Automatic annotation (TrEMBL):
The gene is Eef1akmt1. PANTHER family: EEF1A LYSINE METHYLTRANSFERASE 1 (PTHR13200). One of its GO terms (biological process) is methylation. Keywords: Cytoplasm, Methyltransferase, Transferase. It is found in: Cytoplasm. This is EFMT1 methyltransferase. It catalyses: L-lysyl-[protein] + 3 S-adenosyl-L-methionine = N(6),N(6),N(6)-trimethyl-L-lysyl-[protein] + 3 S-adenosyl-L-homocysteine + 3 H(+). GO terms for cellular component: cytoplasm. One of its GO terms (molecular function) is protein-lysine N-methyltransferase activity. The keyword Nucleotide-binding does not apply.
Length: 213
């Protein structure tokens, strides 16, 4: 009789060790959250979900983009974050700075942010709540979840609907031509970093004179 265990795929010891390390890190983070009087708006308070193609920016990048958005929006400005939750979280840390912000996001875990959360599926770019008026945001920061022309095209419809003019787009370097064509944005010198390295070169694009050059 065959050994029943033969059919069970074995994880290599390397994979196993990596997994254990990952779970340990997660436990430590969970532990830290409870001990630090955890700030619900901080980056990492909601873990990345790779199945939703989520990749959080590094702390420095998120802060840099948040500061840029506040400057660009101006006093009392309105900022929309489309699929860019880590920038949203940084903006929330600077709360009470004389601006307001909305997050348009597919991941319903972000509904913890209450009124500011708007469920958003790029496949239905204009399926937005009625109270989200056209051209009601001073700046829109968007990070389309997928590096595809279709995803950028649809997200661009949302961006154009929401913005009064200013756009800050974060996407792959390979999308430069498409981004210029669809949104009239140009690549900045600033190189955004992620908390985990991405395979594709990532860049920021704007259509106004920004502090990212």
């Amino acid at each position: 009789k065959m050994d029943d265990d033969d059919d069970i795929p074995q994880l290599s010891s390397h994979t196993l060790a990596a997994l254990q390390e990952f779970y340990l890190e997660q436990q430590q983070r969970e532990g830290m959250k409870t001990s630090q009087g955890f700030n619900q708006y901080s980056i990492g308070s909601i873990e990345e979900d790779w199945q939703l193609s989520q990749f959080w920016y590094s702390d420095e990048t998120a802060l840099c983009l948040a500061k840029e958005a506040v400057l660009a929006a101006g006093k009392g400005g309105r900022i929309a974050c489309v699929s860019a939750p880590s920038v949203y979280q940084k903006l929330k840390e600077q709360d009470g700075e004389g601006f307001s912000v909305c997050i348009l996001e597919y991941d319903r875990r972000f509904s913890v942010y209450g009124e500011e959360f708007i469920f958003y599926d790029y496949n239905h770019p204009l399926d937005l709540p009625e109270n989200l008026l056209p051209h009601s945001f001073d700046i829109v920061i968007a990070d389309p979840p997928y590096l595809s022309e279709e995803c950028l095209q649809k997200t661009a419809e949302t961006i154009k609907y929401l913005t009064k003019g200013k756009i800050l787009l974060c996407t792959g370097a390979v999308m430069e031509e498409q981004a210029a064509k669809l949104l009239g944005v140009k690549m900045c010198k600033f190189i955004p970093k992620h908390s985990r390295n991405l395979a594709n070169e990532f860049r920021c694009y704007v259509n106004y004179a920004s502090g990212l050059d």
